[in-house]
UniProtKB/TrEMBL annotation:
<dbReference type="Pfam" id="PF00563">
    <property type="entry name" value="EAL"/>
</dbReference>
<dbReference type="InterPro" id="IPR029787">
    <property type="entry name" value="Nucleotide_cyclase"/>
</dbReference>
<dbReference type="InterPro" id="IPR001633">
    <property type="entry name" value="EAL_dom"/>
</dbReference>
<feature type="domain" description="GGDEF">
    <location>
        <begin position="218"/>
        <end position="349"/>
    </location>
</feature>
<dbReference type="InterPro" id="IPR000160">
    <property type="entry name" value="GGDEF_dom"/>
</dbReference>
<feature type="domain" description="EAL">
    <location>
        <begin position="358"/>
        <end position="608"/>
    </location>
</feature>
<dbReference type="InterPro" id="IPR043128">
    <property type="entry name" value="Rev_trsase/Diguanyl_cyclase"/>
</dbReference>
<dbReference type="Pfam" id="PF12860">
    <property type="entry name" value="PAS_7"/>
</dbReference>
<dbReference type="InterPro" id="IPR035965">
    <property type="entry name" value="PAS-like_dom_sf"/>
</dbReference>
<dbReference type="InterPro" id="IPR035919">
    <property type="entry name" value="EAL_sf"/>
</dbReference>
<dbReference type="InterPro" id="IPR052155">
    <property type="entry name" value="Biofilm_reg_signaling"/>
</dbReference>
<protein>
    <submittedName>
        <fullName>EAL domain-containing protein</fullName>
    </submittedName>
</protein>
<dbReference type="Pfam" id="PF00990">
    <property type="entry name" value="GGDEF"/>
</dbReference>
Amino acid sequence: MSTPAERLFRRQLAAATDAAGRLDLARLQELVIGAYAETDRDRRRGDQAARLMAAELEEVNEALERSVADLQAQNLRFAVALDNMANGLALFSREGRLVVCNGRQREMLGLAEAEAGCSFAAFLRASPFLDARLAGERLRLAEAGTRGEILQTLLNGRDVRFMVCRTADGGFLTTCEDVTERNRAAARITYLAYHDTLTDLPNRALLRERLEAALAAGRCSVLCLDLDGFKGVNDTLGHGMGDALLRAVAERLRHQIRSGDTLARLGGDEFAVVLAAGQAEAARIAGRMVGAIGAQFEIEGQIVNVSTSIGIATAPADGTTPEDLLRHADIALYSAKAAGRDCYRAFEEAMRAVVEARRTVENEIRTALAEGQFELHYQPQVSVLTGRITGFEALVRWNHPVRGMVPPGSFIPVAEETGLIVPLGTWVLREACRQAAGWPGAPRVSVNVSVVQLRSGGVVKAVAEALGESGLEPGRLELEVTETVMLDDTTATLGALRAVRSLGVLVAMDDFGTGYSSLNSLHNFAFDRIKIDRSFVADLASGEKALAIVRAVIGLGRSLGVPVTAEGVETPAQLERLRAERCDDVQGYLYSRPVPAAAARRMLEEAGGRVAA
């Protein structure tokens, strides 16, 4: 069998041989060369085709590699996204076999690994956080064949929302969301809506709910209480100390109530208690509370003294609604304060009129302050030795537009109970300094300061501002305080009085001898003047005991180098007795009743501006 080349050569020989059988070598050469040329062209075309095919194949391969790389990158991104989802996810085939499970799902179920192809039941059984009941709930939801969700608390205490939905190929997708923190936040918000953040006690809203429940259950009592002296602690020692005191008070009150009773903080220093008890038991508990709060507190290394006043209202006698009981307990609380504080009172119908009258006075005092209805009258203090005026005591008077002059005894106690004595006292200070600054002879002016003002913590500032605004020399201003002020809170009171003294202002002890610790007060603070109470002066003519007391006080003042003023001098006999005992100054109707500022000025002008030193 010949090869293609041999057959080609034979055809070329035949083509180059003529009819006579002669071989045309030139023709043969031409044919051979042409054949080689054709073969070379075919080879080049083949090479070109091979090169083109190789290039196309390389492009296809490169495109395929890029697609594979893109798919790998996409799969990686999907895997990263899947494992970093906030929620757990697991996909199951139509046969119920696991296809994919992300890391969050494994974490929420406590699984190190999740075996692909395992059944849903085996998948659930592998979790240490699911018991048979929890796993069964999930199985039934998945087998229902519909979209659904359930909320479960797993064995590790986490709250999880489990959801199932069907896929297009007949499988199902499960997702798990951990809602623990959200539930805790919601629970905290709900808790805060019904509790006081400072003391962790129920607030007014929860108290009302508990009170409604107690009324529905039968007989109950309500206690309303607040702290006597709390504002002074807050103002002088700071709000941080005040907050600490309120927490300590709440803790003491907790120990006085029984299981099932409700202690609530209503705001500020106000508390309330709902008791499943009648009036007698409520009174016993209130008494224990008064004693518990009256014992001294040690707050951040400091001794703090406060007391509490409590009002009691009992259903059904005092009301059958929360509003009635709270209102009547508040009226009883007001009565406890009027009775001297540091005590409790049960509601009585007669209290209502008294309280309403006092509240009317309170509102009218506010109006009087705003409208300038108050004015100052002055009673002169006279030297026993020379008969000259040494100073004046400023006394506030209320010129009511309807009732005329209102007696101080009708409004001063209300002002003190409500705290309105603070702005009223500040006005008195400023007005007394302003008027006295222009008096001839430069006599001193005395202004009374109550315990409530000292508790407020603003007395020193008020005095400094009054002196600064009026230009009155500090040595011409004298503050009068009673012994009860010294008994209230010695540390805070002494601090305020010493601060006032540092301004150059004088401090006198008023009503000396009527308290329980007169001598102790003199020992604790070096007063600039002692004023003998009018009750001793009134009994001078008929009582040896009163004379002995007056004599002792004058002698004590002389020994201490402190001048003594006797109040309430109304007769020449009283004056002569005081002169014989060498009392320094006197004050009373014998010389003058309290008079308006203009009349006081005329007294000084008529004396030619001469004032006893």
